[in-house]
Design a protein that fits this description.
Low-confidence stretches: 1-24
Structural class: alpha+beta
Number of helices: 3
Number of strands: 11
Mean pLDDT: 88
Order of helices and strands: HHEEEEEEEEEEHE
CATH architecture: Beta Barrel
Length: 183
Amino acid sequence: MIRGHTARLASWAVFVGLHFATPAFAVPSVPPTTVPTVDLRRYVGRWYEIGKIPNRFQTQCVRGTTAEYSLRADGRIEVINRCVRGDSSVNEARGIAKVADRGSNSKLNVSFVHFLGMQLFWGDYWIIGLGADYEYAIVGSPDRKYGWILSRTPRMNSDALDKVFATLRTQGYDPARFEMTTP
């Protein structure tokens, strides 16, 4: 009887230990920090996706993912995302971004859903890393559910990627969650 009780207790201890064990890369409870300032005139233009945390709205994209940003007269930003599907057709999504933090321009809200001229379902787009010459950008969300590595060129050299991965780690992201994009 004692042995059976001890075995059950040991099994329970292992279960509780595994259940509450800290994962190899724990996600911090505080949101990532955005860059201090973003010059939107320098930020707009074409960006190539280098990597992303897989998400439900990009499942059809197999290669060649780009984002094109342009300033609008009303202060918002037009967004055109494109990618190539498995059948070689091009998928395009058009949206609008608005600045959520006018002090830094590093927090945006983006919507790709519009109905009767209204944008619906805004998502966080936080710029958490930016190259000195705007040659790359790291974009995330406060909950770290989403993340993108963007570059002005279709490929990044290993030194630049090392900087990006170091920033991701500093910002509480696990770089292993990022899937590299085929150009």
